[in-house]
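Lab notebook, design round three. We kept the backbone fixed and only want residue identities now. Task for the bench partner: fill in a sequence for the structure below.
Input structure tokens:
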């Protein structure tokens, strides 16, 4: 009984302390915003305390991993939803002055929730009001604000032209700011490279609260925010991008093969041609454990985008990828904007206006990891992999083909280094609906087990990883005294040799480490 009472009073005290702490942080930001000449009428509309009735909705509207909207997930002390550049500047200045961690969120698709979760006292700067897209077809450019979603960007391009597009991700509800600052890629990367390869200017707020463009920030910082993670260097307000040309007619296809339908042979041949086939063709392979006739097995699904007509596509696959068995009925010719809808799993009657919907169909509990494959996995290796996937249970793999333009751009051109020499990138993917720590542990352990199994087949020294597939398993930093050595563990996996240059730039532009998170770029340690 005494222990129960003691526990009750302890929990009550901690809750009261957390409540008081949140109030003091909120009040401090309100006061600091006023000192930075933000009118009170504006402050009341953009700064939310935990006691605001809208706080929970604002927080959860852009949570895209249900692991982090449960009651036990750490909550921000304040949420700031700026509507003007001056609000962003004030948020940075005040977080620096108050020594409060600032988490920056655009679309909320960061897989580990680091834009809205932290183990230290923090506030969220949510950029969802910064969503304008200004397309200029005459010079084939667009200014797109960081809170706009990819679907909105694609729609605004289509409004102006049927023969222009942009090489970014296939999920329309991903935020532009995080996607581009982490590298960004989509189903045109073999033809056009990464998203960041088409960024020609930017507007950011730096650690001093200054609003800078490419000219005023300098080429080093401009280099860093094109793949080095914007959240380490500043707040991205907008990017100026160069559009790419697309044919009036493109072709998409989906071909599924079960294990008994020679899936192993097809995946093996895919590895031989994935990075060498015509640059107009991108093929993604989904490997998924399935149950058929009460028997566990693996299905390989090949999804393709071809920047051209079906007859030329069939000629290419017939001669270079016969194991795919692509036939004319599998091919669907359409406009590029309709291919965006196809890849986002809309049916063929869906109008492009669906891309303006900012809400995903569903939000799952999830875990993601990544790898790069430089040498084809043998058929016996694939058989072992399929057996392991069946044994583990629910984890799927996604293969994204490389080569083409990706092999032509030097790895130091941008912070994103994974260029030539890669056949394809792997995403480990597991979703679940069950709530609770036991379910989380079960499925996360499954993903870790498959990741461990794949070690002999993937890149080594370092075992490389993709920044936008955030994975805290590969290392974290508490941003303390030993942060450089801790950050180096994950930094070389994400950035290879580019990590050193990123650290150098970080040390110059943000020496006080205002912009920090669990996997941010560290400040170079002072030598004694």
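Proposed sequence:
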């Amino acid at each position: 009984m005494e222990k129960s009472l003691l526990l009750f009073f302890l929990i009550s005290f901690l809750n009261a302390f957390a409540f008081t702490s949140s109030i003091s942080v909120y009040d401090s930001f309100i006061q600091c915003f006023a000192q930075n000449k933000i009118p009170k009428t504006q402050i009341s509309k953009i700064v939310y305390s935990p006691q605001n009735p809208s706080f929970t909705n604002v927080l959860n509207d852009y949570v895209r991993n249900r692991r982090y909207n449960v009651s036990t997930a750490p909550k921000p002390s304040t949420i700031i939803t700026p509507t003007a550049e001056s609000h962003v500047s004030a948020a940075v200045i005040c977080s620096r002055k108050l020594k409060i961690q600032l988490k920056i969120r655009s679309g909320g698709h960061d897989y580990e929730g680091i834009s809205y979760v932290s183990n230290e006292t923090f506030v969220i700067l949510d950029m969802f009001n910064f969503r304008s897209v200004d397309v200029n077809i005459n010079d084939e450019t667009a200014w797109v604000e960081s809170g706009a979603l990819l679907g909105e960007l694609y729609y605004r391009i289509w409004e102006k032209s049927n023969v222009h597009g942009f090489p970014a991700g296939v999920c329309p509800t991903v935020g532009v700011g995080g996607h581009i600052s982490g590298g960004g890629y989509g189903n045109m990367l073999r033809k056009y490279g990464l998203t960041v390869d088409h960024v020609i200017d930017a507007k950011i707020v730096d650690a001093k609260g200054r609003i800078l463009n490419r000219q005023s920030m300098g080429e080093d910082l401009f280099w860093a925010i094109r793949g080095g993670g914007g959240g380490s260097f500043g707040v991205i307000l907008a990017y100026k991008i160069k559009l790419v040309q697309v044919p009036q007619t493109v072709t998409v296809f989906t071909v599924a093969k079960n294990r008994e339908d020679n899936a192993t042979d097809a995946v093996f041949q895919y590895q031989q041609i994935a990075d060498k086939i015509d640059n107009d063709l991108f093929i993604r392979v989904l490997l998924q454990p399935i149950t058929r006739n009460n028997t566990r097995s693996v299905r390989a699904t090949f999804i393709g985008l071809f920047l051209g007509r079906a007859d030329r596509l069939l000629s290419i696959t017939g001669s270079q990828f016969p194991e795919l068995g692509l036939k004319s009925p599998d091919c669907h010719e359409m406009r590029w904007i309709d291919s965006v809808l196809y890849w986002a799993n809309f049916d063929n009657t869906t109008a492009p206006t669906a891309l303006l919907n900012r809400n995903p169909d569903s939000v799952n509990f999830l875990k993601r990891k990544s790898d790069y494959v430089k040498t084809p996995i043998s058929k016996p290796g694939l058989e072992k992999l399929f057996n392991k996937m069946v044994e583990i249970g629910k984890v799927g793999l996604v293969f994204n083909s490389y080569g083409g333009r990706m092999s032509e751009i030097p790895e130091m051109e941008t912070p994103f280094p994974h260029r030539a020499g890669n056949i394809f990138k792997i995403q480990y993917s597991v979703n679940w609906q069950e709530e609770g720590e036991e379910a989380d542990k079960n499925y996360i352990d499954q993903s870790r087990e498959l990741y461990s199994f794949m070690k002999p087949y993937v890149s080594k020294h370092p075992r490389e990883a993709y920044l936008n597939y955030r994975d805290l398993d590969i290392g974290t930093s508490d941003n303390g005294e030993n942060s450089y050595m801790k950050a180096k563990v994950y930094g070389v996996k994400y950035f290879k040799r580019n990590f050193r240059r990123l650290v150098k730039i970080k040390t110059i532009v943000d020496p006080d480490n205002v912009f920090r998170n669990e996997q941010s770029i560290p400040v170079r340690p002072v030598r004694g």
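Keep this in mind before ordering anything: The first helix runs from residue 2 to 35.
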